[in-house]
Amino acid sequence: MQTEAELKDFILNGHLYYIPHVSIDCAIFGYHEQQLKLLLIKHKAIDGWCLPGGYIKRTEKLVEAAERNVKVRTGVDNLFLQQFKTFGDPDRIQFNKFDQQQWLELTGIESWEDTWLFDQTISVGFYAITDFSQTELQTDITTEKCAWFDIDALPGLEYDHDEMVREALHTMRVQLYHYPIGINMLPEKFTLSEIHALYETLLGKKLDISNFPKKLMALGLLEKLNEKRSIGAHRSPHLYSFNKEKYGEALKNGVVLN
Amino acid sequence: MQTEAELKDFILNGHLYYIPHVSIDCAIFGYHEQQLKLLLIKHKAIDGWCLPGGYIKRTEKLVEAAERNVKVRTGVDNLFLQQFKTFGDPDRIQFNKFDQQQWLELTGIESWEDTWLFDQTISVGFYAITDFSQTELQTDITTEKCAWFDIDALPGLEYDHDEMVREALHTMRVQLYHYPIGINMLPEKFTLSEIHALYETLLGKKLDISNFPKKLMALGLLEKLNEKRSIGAHRSPHLYSFNKEKYGEALKNGVVLN
User: Fold this and answer.
1) Which residues in chain A are classed under CATH 3.90.79.10?
2) Is-contact B112 B189, C-beta < 8 A?
3) What is the least distance, in Å, from the CA of A11 to any CA of chain B?
4) More confident residue, B98 or B4
5) By the 8 A CB rule, do A54 and A24 touch?
6) The Nudix hydrolase domain covers which part of the protein (chains A, B) (predicted)?
7) Which chain B residues touch A83 with a CB distance below 8 Å?
8) Would you call B88 and A22 a contact, using CB atoms and an 8 Å cutoff?
9) Rounded-to-integer distance, Cα B100 and Cα B170, Å
10) Is some CB atom of chain A closer than 8 A to the CB atom of B254?
C-alpha cells in the first residue's frame, strides 16, 4: 500500500480481497561475516517493533502471501521462505495496543471493532535466511521504519512475536541439520573457515572444525576446487564450492547432517 | 456433536463460537508390532476418506482444538499432537464435493454458500503417533465411520489430504532424529530388537542395528537393565528402559540423533 486511498479501502473492504482471521508473520534472519541479524519493522499504528507480516489475498498461496508481505513492508525480495509454526491463542493479540486515532479519521468508521481487522487472528510463521549486506530496505505507507537488529540485542517485540522469534530460531537450527545452506550467503568459492563460520553463527555454538565438513563432502554437497586463496605469506587455504545439482536435490529431499 | 439440534446450531451459528476460515486436520499414525497405520474418517456428507479435523473454538489454543476434534470424531484421546505444516491454497477445497442434501433441510437454509462454512479455509496440520491396539474408535453425528489403514495401502483421500499425509510423514521422520519416541509404544522394559523395529517401521527403512542404539545410550535416553528376557533355549536378550527424566528433557529441548 502506498496511498491513503489504498489504506482506506484496505480497512473498509479488505475482507473482500483478503482472508479474514488469518495472518502471516516472517522472521527474516540476515547473515554477513559472522554476524546474525533479524529484520524488524515499526508500524505507524503500533508503538514497538514487530516481525514483518500481513494478510493473505484470497487468490494467493500462503508462501506467496509471505513473499509479498515481506517485499512491500521491507523492500526485501527473492527470499526462500519456509514455514516454521502457526500461532493461535485467544490471548495472542492485544488490540488495545493499536493506535486508534491515526487512521480512523481516514475511514469515517467510529470504532476499530466495527472493522474486519479487529477479530481473532491465527498467524502462520515463515522464516528465511539472507545476506543482510545485499538487501535494500524500504517502507510502505503503514510502516514507520524497518531495520536489521543483532540477534543478541533484540528489543522486546509486540504481541507474541518474541515467542515467534524463539520458535523460528529453533526450527532454523534444527533444519540446518536437514537442508543445505550457504548459497547466496557465501562467495561462489569459499574456504572451509568461511562455511564453518556460517554454520557456527547460525547455530549459535561452536562446531568441531576437523569433523564438520566431512559430512557435507560425503553427501557430495561440497566440492574441493583445485585452487587456493592467498591470505598471507604461509597461508593459502583450499577453496570449495557447492555442487549445485546435489544442493538442489538436498533442498528438495532433505539430508541428515550431524 | 451428538444431536441434530447441535448440528443445526453449528451450521447456522458456528461462526460465533468458532474462528471462520481456519480449520485443523490431524494425521494420527498408529504403531503396533512393526505395523504402521493411519487413522481416517468418513464424513456423512463427503463421499471418501479424510483426515479427522474440524474448527477451532474462539476460546481454544490451536493444539486444544486439535485434541478436541480428534477425540470427538474418532474417540482417540490423550495424544501428543505436534504441528507439522499449515495448508493454504485457493484451490485446496472443492465445496461441490459436499453432499448438500443431507443437512440443508435440517437448517432451512437455501444454499450452503449462505453459510459461514463455505468460504476459503486455511488448515493447520497436526500429527501424532500412538499405539493403535490401545485405541477405542467411536464416531459422532457427522461421521459415518473411522478406521485404521495400513500406511502402504491408503485409499486416495479427499481435498488436499494426500499431500497432508505426505508432509506429515516427512516431518514425523525428520523429527525422529530430534525428539525421543517410544514411551506408550513399547512395553515398560523392551529389547533392542523391539526399539529397533519401532524406528525402522516409523522411518520406513532399514537401520544398522549395531550402530543404532549407541546414540540413544550416549544421550542417556536408554538404560540397560540388569535383567534379561528369555525367548528361547539360547536366546535371552538384555532388557532396556527409558530414562524418563532425560526423555522429558529431550522432548522439550530436542536432541540430534544420527
Assistant:
1) 4-175
2) no
3) 19
4) B4
5) yes
6) 19-171
7) 85-86
8) yes
9) 35
10) yes
Give the CATH architecture of domain B185-253: Orthogonal Bundle (1.10)
Say what the alpha-carbon torsion angle A166, A168, A169, A174 is, to the nearest 10 degrees: 120
CB atoms within 10 A of CB A91: 9
User: Could you tell me where the beta strands, DSSP code E, fall in B132-178?
Assistant: 143-150
H or E stretch at B249: helix B244-253
List, in sequence order, the alpha helices (H) in A18-79.
62-74
Q: Supply angle C-alpha A198, A202, A204, rounded to 5.
A: 115
CATH of A182-253, one of 3.90.700.10, 3.40.190.10, 1.20.1300.10, 1.10.10.10: 1.10.10.10
Q: Is A86 on the interface with B (CB under 8 A)?
A: yes
* Domain boundaries for CATH 1.10.10.10 within chain B: 185-253
Distances (CA, A) of A213 to A147, A193, A204, B36: 33, 10, 17, 36
Q: Does A214 touch chain B (CB under 8 A)?
A: no
Q: Which residues of A138-175 are buried (b: 16+ CB within 10 A; e: fewer)?
A: ebbebbeebebeebeeeeebbbbbeebbebbbebbebb
Nine-digit cell string for A130: 539472507
Neighbours of A126 (CB within 10 A): 26
Interface check for B67 against chain A (CB to CB < 8 A): the answer is no
> Could you tell me whether strands B53-57 and A222-228 are parallel, antiparallel, or unpaired per DSSP bridges?
unpaired
Looking at the structure, give the CATH architecture of the domain made up of residues B4-175: Alpha-Beta Complex (3.90)
pLDDT computed for residue B149 by the predictor: 97
CATH 1.10.10.10 residue ranges of chain A are: 182-253
Burial class (CB in 10 A: 0-12, 13-18, 19+), B249: middle
H/E/C letters for each residue in B50-78? ECCEEEEECCCCHHHHHHHHHHHHHCCCC
ipTM value: 0.90
pLDDT tens profile B131-174: 999 899 998 888 889 999 999 999 999 999 999 999 999 999 88
Per-block mean pLDDT, blocks of 10 residues, chain A (258 long): 85 94 96 95 89 96 95 90 95 72 78 84 96 90 91 95 96 86 90 92 86 82 91 86 92 74
Find, in chain B, the residue whose alpha carbon is nearest to that of A176: B256
Radius of gyration (Cα) for chain A, nearest Å?
Answer: 21
- H-helix or E-strand containing A9? helix A4-17
